[in-house]
């Protein structure tokens, strides 16, 4: 079985779901059910993020989840673990500044894999773009209880600085924002992050709790997706 080949232009980052299996967020629901509901509501790309899971269990979850995402033709990325992505032959990985180097990840995963990187500074963003990341996850935009990482809260001004620097450096790369995004601030985040004179926008928004913790994940995803696609540049 071959990994679905794609060009970056095929990828739709509009509504990017990052999973969280912690009891506070998932409760006693099944991860695959929640993600399937979210996809039905309009999620366009999924990242499996497991911070407390042994390798065997991680691979089993990834395999089950990939069976679902494939049904809807939605790419599945694995947080941190290149080996897990290889084991289940999914579409790619999302790595942070402390994870494997992009070049090594690319060598292991091949030219068709989607490799996303978390960045919170201009320097990290330019390096990741030069190193061939397919997209950047820019954040943390707002403080969030989902990731207690107060060192890297950059606000929408920080996102705009990074988008602008990438443009000026001549390194266009798809970017999504992450951190504290919900249906009441998504428009504001998108517009405040934009480098408007140059019409440079985020390609999408990545959320955890706004969908994963919602009582009805499908409805929550649908409302967020409608918010996103009701306005340029997404609509
Ligand atoms: N990386 C930066 S913030 C964050 C991650 C994984 C969590 C975002 O969670 P939420 O619930 O969407 O604020
Ligand atoms: Mg990581």
Short description:
With 235 residues, the chain is an alpha/beta fold.
Features:
Thiamine biosynthetic bifunctional enzyme-like protein; eight-stranded parallel beta barrel; alpha/beta; 40% helix; binds 4-methyl-5-hydroxyethylthiazole phosphate; 235 residues; binds magnesium ion; single chain
Runs in which pLDDT lies below 50 for 5 or more consecutive residues are 1-5
Number of helices: 10
Bound molecules: 4-methyl-5-hydroxyethylthiazole phosphate, magnesium ion
Q: How does the major sheet shape up?
A: 8 strands, parallel, barrel
Span between termini: 35 Å
Structural class: alpha/beta
Instruction: Please bin the fraction of helical residues.
Output: 40-55%
SSE layout and pairing:
Layout: E1 15-18, H1 23-26, H2 31-41, E2 45-48, H3 55-71, E3 76-79, H4 82-88, E4 92-95, H5 102-109, E5 114-119, H6 122-130, E6 135-139, H7 155-168, E7 174-178, H8 186-193, E8 204-207, H9 209-212, H10 217-229
Helix pairs in contact: 2-3, 2-10, 3-4, 6-7, 7-8
Bound molecules: 4-methyl-5-hydroxyethylthiazole phosphate and magnesium ion.
